[in-house]
Design a protein that fits this description.
The chain has about 800 residues and is of the alpha+beta class. The protein has 15 helices and 45 strands. It has an 8-stranded parallel sheet with strand order 6-5-4-3-2-1-8-7. Helix 2 runs antiparallel to helix 13 and helix 8 packs parallel to helix 9.
């Protein structure tokens, strides 16, 4: 598959080159060439879908990027509207339409001003045609697009086949339009997404790398087992001949965010395309403590962007797959990656083979995954660099001219950008229980005082070394390691309980809602405003994608079965309710809008819900199907789990009552896309594997990876645990569980699932039994393994402040 994609990319690349040659007499400059430094971009796809953005939401988003610049000095060059601003799926619009005026009552001017105040220009998604069938329609389309450049200084057009292809008879009109646009925006970038523009190819700045979009587990997903969802993204190919006039759809910051930084480092420094760093979706879903790193990556790229245009592919045998060195004879930035479960050491030759000039001494440091000064070495020496499993690494090699760059010797660290430049903030990093002797490197003459976690260490500014104790209990084992290869075992009598544990633990919510839970609350007003603008937009609410709608007391909101694509059959799935702990109820009331919403249940028919306190023992709770279904819970005592199968299509509220009073539902969660075990027929557990482990130490952020290597069929392998006899499910899996999606369906896979189970310190020393259930009798040649790892690396941190 990768060879086919590379061949297709190369054909597109050759076609662009031939087009440029054919139209050389017109002196067409397509907005950039191979030596043009990259421009950073955000585009709004998945913040909105085909319905399009609005003025209000866009201004809020721009304020978020203004905060990043004001706080961390992060410069965004381009903010691009994606689908639905003017054009949309299978239609072309204009700025005189009622639709456009509803979305942008003041036109683009307010956003142009907001963006311009922070040095950002706008871009827009659209189609290549829209010229209509009359001269008047043709002129209107040309004027619409030209006005974006003439009146608003737009810097980017993204043209997509979603609108349709360019009619051959309109090739000359398209050329005329683009020539006119570039009179006002000569640096206008035209991103070509799957279009045949004919002679207009000469105007295209880029083609889409592999034809691929990058929404994690929707448009790109893992093909191997891995400790996170982004292995498929960090395994992406290089463009043919390292051509930079390519677009790779950037880095999605909307779903499965862990390890986003490894993805972005490769996009910005490895491929280093004309639009880099490029992000899209909902970056306001990151954790508050991740934004300094986001800004640091952007800022480093901006610092080196002029020399990053010069790249060379490094030998795979020595440096691994798709390693690249960029820079000049004085400074090289190497990007390495490791697509295996174990750490890999690469030996870097410090000479012309990586692009260095004939230097006397070579300074070696890493920028990612942590910043670390490796040391100074003679030209021609070799230096080993460790790359962590399924991660990328950014290494800087430079001459003595770079010796003035600020850094810290003696430990890993992360610089926290500061837009004001009057104070330097540095997170010092080391594993628990360790001590490090640190010194400052580079020019520190501007600073008068230094402190670590409030303790004065100004002697650092005089070249002295300071010992730093990082505290915590020392780890006696690697935080990332293989724990076991699982052995085949007889199918346990409680296989259904193991299966149900993971179904109840898993989520079918929109992927963005899952990431909001991952990242937690924010203390930053601009982030909160952007999150609110996204989750409160009418379309997101109306798609009924979030189980919290069942517990919000609002009868106008609902949680529905995959209403956007409806690729599941309600008869074959269950509504599952987990109340977070066993609770005694008198009744449980399930409300729907109407009899249609009740489908496939039918009004006034008798049904049984399944109820349990422990996933092992189940009782039938009778109820009558209706718009408001009351289930008598009093006979059962405390229960935690409820299943209704088949699941109603749309549910607006689930309420528990005790002594006539509604009970607290803050811990309640629901799912509606998992199959009932009893309905799987030939998909009962056909074969099982198990392993018993015990963990004496559990570093912060640790989780188990249950890697099911082999072909198991779609939904054909499930993993679950018992800890001291209690059932625990895996709440996450790559590729992902089925989802009530915001944009497109999650990608199905028939092989190499990896289940993730979060650990906490209370589990230390306990008996942990891990099970894998092979559910597809035709695909049982599996090799399950168990790893422990942690995200982020479980460093202890100390804050160094220089003033």
């Amino acid at each position: 598959m990768q060879k086919k994609l590379l061949k297709r990319n190369f054909v597109q690349f050759v076609f662009i080159c031939l087009s440029l040659t054919s139209f050389a007499q017109e002196k067409i400059f397509p907005g950039a060439d191979e030596s043009t430094p990259s421009r950073s971009e955000y585009f709004s796809w998945i913040n909105n879908t085909n319905e399009g953005a609005t003025e209000a939401q866009t201004l809020i988003n721009l304020d978020f990027f203004k905060w990043l610049k004001d706080e961390y000095g992060m410069q965004l060059d381009i903010y691009a509207f994606d689908a639905g601003a003017i054009d949309g799926k299978r239609f072309y619009g204009n700025m005189q339409s009622d639709r456009f005026k509803r979305q942008f009552p003041n036109g683009f001017a307010p956003m142009v001003k907001e963006a311009g105040d922070m040095g950002t220009r706008l871009g827009i998604w659209g189609g290549p045609d829209g010229f209509g069938d009359t001269p008047e329609e043709e002129d209107l389309r040309i004027e619409t697009m030209v006005s974006l450049c003439r009146d608003h200084n737009f810097e980017l057009f993204k043209m997509d086949g979603v609108c349709g292809q360019l009619r051959p008879e309109k090739h000359n009109v398209f050329n005329r339009m683009m020539n006119e646009c570039r009179k006002y925006s000569p640096d206008l970038i035209l991103l070509n997404h799957r279009l045949d523009l004919g002679s207009g190819m000469a105007h295209s700045t880029t083609f889409l790398l592999g034809g691929a979009e990058t929404y994690i587990d929707v448009h790109i997903a893992n093909t191997t087992t891995a400790p996170h969802h982004r292995a498929g993204a960090i395994a992406r190919e290089l463009p043919p001949k390292l051509t930079r006039l390519t677009e790779d759809h950037g880095v999605c910051l909307s779903s499965f965010l862990d390890y986003w930084e490894d993805d972005l480092v490769l996009q910005a420094f490895n491929r280093n395309l004309i639009v880099s760093p490029e992000i899209y979706g909902n970056p306001w879903l990151l954790r508050d403590n991740e934004y300094p790193l986001l800004a640091r990556i952007f800022n480093l790229h901006r610092k080196y962007k002029d020399i990053l245009v010069n790249g060379m592919v490094l030998p795979e045998k020595r440096y691994g797959i798709n390693a690249v060195s960029r820079g000049d004879g004085h400074t090289r930035l190497l990007t390495l990656r490791n697509l295996s479960w174990e750490p890999v050491n690469y030996s870097i030759k410090l000479d012309s083979s990586v692009g260095l000039g004939d230097l006397g001494k070579v300074q070696v440091k890493t920028y990612h995954p942590t910043e670390k000064i490796i040391g100074s070495f003679a030209f021609g020496e070799e230096v080993e660099i460790e790359v962590l499993p399924f991660r990328s690494c950014l290494v800087k090699l430079s001459d003595a001219k770079s010796a003035d760059e600020f850094g810290v010797e003696g430990t890993d660290y992360q610089i926290v950008p500061n837009a004001k430049n009057d104070t330097e903030y540095v997170q010092l990093l080391s594993l628990p229980g360790t001590s490090r002797k640190i010194k400052l490197a580079g020019d520190c003459s501007a600073y008068k005082s230094a402190s670590i976690d409030g303790e004065d260490v100004s002697s650092l500014l005089k070249g002295k070394a300071v010992k730093v104790d990082f505290g915590g209990d020392m780890l006696h084992l690697p935080y990332h390691r293989k724990l076991a290869e699982m052995d085949e075992c007889p199918v346990p009598g409680d296989a259904e309980s193991i299966y149900e544990a993971t179904c109840f633990a898993g989520s079918n919510n929109a992927l963005e809602a899952q990431e909001l839970l991952r990242s937690g609350e924010t203390k930053i007003p601009q982030i909160q405003a952007a999150r609110d603008a996204f989750f409160n937009q009418p379309v997101f609410k109306e798609r009924e994608l979030w189980d919290r709608n069942l517990f919000d007391g609002d009868l106008s909101t609902a949680y529905s079965i995959n209403m956007r694509h409806n690729t599941v059959i309600p008869n074959n799935i269950s509504l599952r309710l987990d109340m977070g702990g066993a609770i005694a109820l008198d009744s449980l009331v399930v409300k729907t809008f109407d009899t249609y919403s009740l489908e496939p249940l039918e009004t006034e028919e008798g049904n049984n819900a399944k109820v349990s306190a422990d996933l092992l023992h189940w009782d039938d709770a009778f109820f009558m199907a209706d718009k408001s279904m009351k289930i008598d819970m009093a006979p059962f005592g405390p229960i935690r789990y409820v299943k209704i199968q088949p699941a109603p299509l749309r549910i607006t509220e689930i309420i528990g009552y005790k002594d006539g009073v509604q009970v607290d539902r803050s811990k309640w969660k629901a799912s509606n896309l998992f199959d009932p075990y009893s309905e799987r027929k030939n998909y009962y557990a056909q074969k099982t594997w198990s392993s018993e482990i015990s963990l004496d130490e559990i570093p912060e952020g640790s989780y188990l990876c249950i890697a099911i290597n082999g072909t198991h069929g779609i939904e054909g392998a499930y993993a679950g645990l018992k800890i001291d006899g209690e059932y625990f499910g895996c709440p996450d899996r790559a590729p992902a569980f089925k989802s009530n999606v915001w944009e497109a369906d999650v990608r199905e896979s028939d092989k190499n699932y990896t289940y993730y189970f979060p650990l906490d310190k209370n589990m230390a020393g306990k008996k942990i039994e891990v099970f894998v259930l092979g559910l597809n009798g035709e695909h049982l040649d599996l090799k399950p393994e168990i790893y422990i790892t942690a995200y982020p690396v479980p460093f202890k941190k100390k804050l160094l402040i220089l003033e």
